[in-house]
Amino acid sequence: MEQIIFHIDVNSAYLSWSSLKRLENGDSTDLRTIPAIVGGDMERRHGVVLAKSIPAKKYGVVTGEPIVNALRKCPSLVIESPDHALYNQKSRELMHFLSDICPEIEQLSVDECFMDFTPIKNRYPSPEEAAETIKNQIRDSFGFTVNIGISDKKVLAKMASDFKKPDLVHTLYSREIDKKMWPLPVSSLYMCGHSSAEALRKLEIKTIGDLAKTSEEIIVSHLKSHGRLLWEYANGIDDSTVAAAPSEAKGIGNSITLPKDVTEETEAFHYLLALSDSVAGRLRKAGQLAGMISVEIKYSSFKTASHQMTLTNPTNISQVIYDASCRLFLELWNGSPIRLLGVRSSKLADPSEPSQLSLFNFEQTDQSASLPGKPKNSPVSPSREKLAALDKTLDAIRQKYGSSAVVRGSFLKDD
Questions:
Q1: How many beta carbons lie within 10 A of that of residue 42, not counting itself?
Q2: Model confidence over 59-102: pLDDT tens digits?
Q3: Residues 6 or more apart from 366 whose CB is under 8 A from it?
Q4: Residue 59 contacts by C-beta under 8 Å, 6 or more apart in sequence?
Q5: Which end of the chain is more exposed for a tag (fewer CB within 10 A), N or C?
Q6: Higher pLDDT, 159 or 256
Q7: What is the rounded CA–CA span in Å between residue 105 and residue 111?
């Protein structure tokens, strides 16, 4: 099975995050729309450019150059001092969001990461559509944009995300390198710095394709082991895999930015059902039970609210998680239009751990009859054992025939 890897990179991260903070504090100017940089000190005008806006780039301003040089190119340049505490906070929020979609995340720096999309690819029509969805959710939820590169190799996914910006998705599969990557200047190859590019130029190697077609021995004789690495990258050779953080998962969740603001209770329940299905399925795949469920609402005003509840018994049953989510939603929602909904599980436990039974456990599934999708005069709800057996059967069918092999009837009317 071909692996699919995403490289997700925030566009002008420092500048975007600083600009968002200024806008939240009442500033009317978006730094991303004017010639602006992050770096150094505005009053003393020293230091280097850490991030630049697209309008600043048009003046020839480049990342890493001294601020005095940037000011010569654009005297009206606006300089914003860096706020690393803010950047770390924004980075944590983004990685938390992406980990809810797929836990196979390798963070490369504060503003970029790899995602092994392979385990969840059956949930989406295609990797490209999934990347578009993720990209748009980040933009709508957080207010900043990302580029996403897609490939079967990590280095090629990284290269793809550096193609035209901002807010775009690009592919660079191994079969595409001769058309998409080889015509590029060799200096644009990942890990090819100024000195390496200059050494290659002296060998009359100007493009990545020139490097790929040159004998490996010649490159190694001039650039040693680093030359071998560059030659391999130029040929799309990279056997490394996404090294997800080994830390134990503290929670599994999912959220969705709604295609339009939701104002009806029944419509919100519809999305909660899909989210609960997703969370429960991921819990079962991870071999975990959830002891706590929380629901998040982001209103059209961008104000957020959340509520959580501890379950009597930890579970990974879809219906039980859905029932809990609906109850939390009813307690939380203030009636305002909803832009985003999220369901998250926490206090994870191993199914082999003993659980404490109480007399109330035998009534818990019956209480769901009063919730959406349940007839008020319905007979006693299925037992937990029957619900668990149903989930297990559905998981087996979806694993064998794909995630769309079995679909809830309530979803059939969806586009």
A1: 13
A2: 999 988 899 999 999 999 999 999 989 999 999 999 989 988 88
A3: 380, 381
A4: 35, 73, 74, 77
A5: C
A6: 159
A7: 13
Q: Is 112 a catalytic residue?
A: yes
Model confidence band, residue 362 (pLDDT cutoffs 50, 70, 90): very low
Instruction: Report whether 83 contacts 16 (CB < 8 A).
Output: no
Secondary structure of 106-156 in the HEC alphabet?
EEEECCEEEEECHHHHHHCCCHHHHHHHHHHHHHHHHCCCEEEEEECCHHH
Q: Would you say residue 354 has pLDDT above 70?
A: no
- pTM exceeding the 0.85 threshold for the entire prediction: no
Residues in the chain, overall count: 415
Query: Please, are residues 53 and 73 in contact by the beta-carbon 8 Å criterion?
Result: no
Among residues 112, 248, 267, 296, the one annotated as catalytic is 112
**Quick one: how far is CA 222 from the chain centroid?**
40
Select from 342, 278, 340 the least CA-distant residue to 307.
342
